[in-house]
Amino acid sequence: MEKSQGRRTMISIASPVLGDDETEAVISVLKSGMLAQGPKVEEFEEAFASYTGTEYGIATNSGTAALHIALLASGIGKGDEVITTPFSFIATGNAILFCGAKPVFADIDENTFNVNPSLIYEKITPKTKAILPAHLYGQPCNMKEIVQICEDHNLILIEDACQAHGAEYQGKKVGSFGIGCFSFYPTKNMTTGEGGMITTHDEEIAEKARMIRNHGREETYLHEIVGYNYRMTDIAAAIGICQLKKLDEFNRQRIENAKFLTKEISKIEGLIPPFVAPNVRHAFHQFTIKVTEDFGISRGALKEKLEQAGIIAEIYYPLPIPQQPLYQKSGYNSEHLPNSEKAAEEVLSLPVHPSLTEEELSYIVQTIKNI
């Protein structure tokens, strides 16, 4: 934590938990001399695939790269349409653009913040090739309905699980329903510094993904397709192996912190705590509340007052993807997605990470009550 200008240390919105075992793992790799993609990457891939209940794991250098590769390996290209959520980090939509395809946005469910399956149907056209839902803030999408839509219309399912490590829908981990894509950025539930992972049951997809991440080759200097340098290093993988062993405990603590915050935030008029859908295990990458008009001051004013008190809260995300300048210039200026637009005006994420103490959690709640 950083020191604030006030009477206490800052309570950060995220705090990676790294210990001596991560340090020792990195030192071991440095001493081995194998710094790029090597045996540690392979070990991490196997461990992560096993954790998610999938056959194959393909490590990448970012979650964005994982999304891009998954789309390319699925054959998504120019002229294709991919239905996705408008309310997510911009990489969810941009990865589709990277392939020359068109993102088609279906509005979200106002409670879960995830894409609403009932609104996907009206977006399907003969050009639709895939659905790319995002498990936002760590809450799984309604996978039963989304899987059914994909089966009924012969569509590819690619899951943006970049915020949902260890989250479950009806007892099954996200990233195992279709082709899963994860991020290991420092703010995520587990980290490798930078990094990503693709999970799949499909051997052909796995083989293509491995080629795409490594300049389109299976053998050294024999390049069969257009590929990229999207490889993970053994340094990052060594950290990931250690972090994966701790992930369930990290998530358990996040869930406990979320329960406390939910109980207390529910007592404050004008603030709505996160809705947790039935039959899911929410991983609480973020604890995201709605700040409504009944609260008395604006969301921006609440965020500012919290920061003055030494509490960092963040807005994820202030604009739906189609309202970003890039998309406005690309012809999405007439897109009306009321639930996403309302969410962008109301959401505010409070600290929920596993490093928080009971004192800090109580301080967050009491500070809000005193505003």
Compact description:
The protein contains 12 helices and 15 strands. Helix content is 39%, strand content 15%. The chain is α/β, with parallel strands linked by helices and 371 residues long.
Structural description of this entry:
The protein is of the alpha/beta class and 371 residues long. It has two domains: 20-243, Type I PLP-dependent aspartate aminotransferase-like (Major domain) (Aspartate Aminotransferase, domain 2); 247-370, Alpha-Beta Complex (Aspartate Aminotransferase, domain 1), CATH 3.90.1150.10. 39% of the residues lie in helices and 15% in strands. The chain has twelve helices and 15 strands. It has helices at 20-32, 39-52, 63-73, 91-98, 117-120, 143-153, 203-213, 234-265, 299-308, 325-332, 338-346, 358-370; strands at 56-60, 81-84, 102-105, 128-132, 156-160, 168-169, 172-173, 179-183, 196-200, 217-219, 222-223, 271-272, 280-281, 287-291, 347-350. Strands 1-9-8-5-4-2-3 form a seven-stranded mixed sheet, sandwiched between helices. A three-stranded antiparallel sheet has the order 7-6-13, with no helix packed on it. Strands 12-14-15 form a three-stranded antiparallel sheet. Helix 3 (63-73) packs across helix 4 and helix 3 (63-73) crosses helix 7. It is globular, with a radius of gyration of 21 Å. Residues 1-7 have low confidence and may be disordered.
